[in-house]
Amino acid sequence: MLKGLRIHYGSLKAALFFVVVWLFLALCWVLTGSHLSSLIWFIIPGIAFSVFAYWCSSKLAIIAMHATEVSEEEEPVLYAMVRDLSARIGKPMPRVMVSPYESPNAFATGRSERHASICCTRGLINILNERELRSVIGHELTHIYNHDILASSLATATATVLTYVGSWLVYVGDTYRRDIRKYCKFIGKFLNILFAPIASVIINAIIPGSREFDADKGSSEITGDFAALASALNKITYGMQLHEMKSTAGLQAVASLMIICPWNNNAPALVRLCTARPTVQDRIGRLMSIAA
């Protein structure tokens, strides 16, 4: 195993995530009177959410990015990179997705190594050369093989659902009479403001910020090219300024999975406060110090 690949107890953290969900439901049941007759109304949503989160969490991130799976015929260079780097370390090849967004970025998602996906935006593919793109793929593969993706996908799915509920309430509020409209829109905006940062809080709580350093190092060890990832991070940062990604309910949650948060500079203060990830400058500095 490469030094950059470290087991971060992703399965245990995912289990703890479900424990927290069920404890929250139990608390709600207690606060509503602890009646056995009402218990079923907490068990059924709990089971439904648990099954949905485990099996569909990665799909929500892909849907939010409007990404589609591509074949080797459609994206020969990108597909070959993912296949070759996966084979180099003897791991299953993830599915390859491409999002139409021009803002350069990438992320990995899925519930296991064998059910994982790597998603790159069209802007990323256009702005990076082959060395740099290979290094980004290596970074995302390291996240997959470090078992980071299950717990982070679960947290992101939770925040995505809740923020979409907020957006739905804002939209539905416009269709009702004035006295109901103001309450729906207020609750919807509150959920949008609150639950996007909660996604970052959950992810940062169950997956340490050092995972980005580990993924950067793992990528450099897989590709044997430390300088390429540093150059890629610089280009992505510049490209995000040229092509800013629109801040929607779904994308706010998915941002916590991306190689660089697309709204580091322009995000609301609460989002920046709750996103405790290493800065791009720190990551580039560490890569260059290793290369030296």
From TrEMBL:
Cofactor dependency: Zn(2+)
Name of the protein in question: Peptidase M48
Coiled coil (residue ranges): none
Gene3D superfamilies: Metalloproteases ('zincins'), catalytic domain (3.30.2010.10)
InterPro entries: HtpX_protease (IPR050083), Peptidase_M48 (IPR001915)
Pfam families named among the record's database cross-references: Peptidase_M48
Subcellular localization, as worded in the UniProt entry: Cell membrane
Membrane topology: Multi-pass membrane protein
Species annotation: Gardnerella swidsinskii
Bilayer-spanning residue ranges: 12-32, 38-56, 186-207
Keyword terms of this UniProt record: Cell membrane, Hydrolase, Membrane, Metal-binding, Metalloprotease, Protease, Transmembrane, Transmembrane helix, Zinc
Bound cofactor: record note: Binds 1 zinc ion per subunit.
Residue ranges constituting the Peptidase M48 domain according to the UniProt record: 75-287
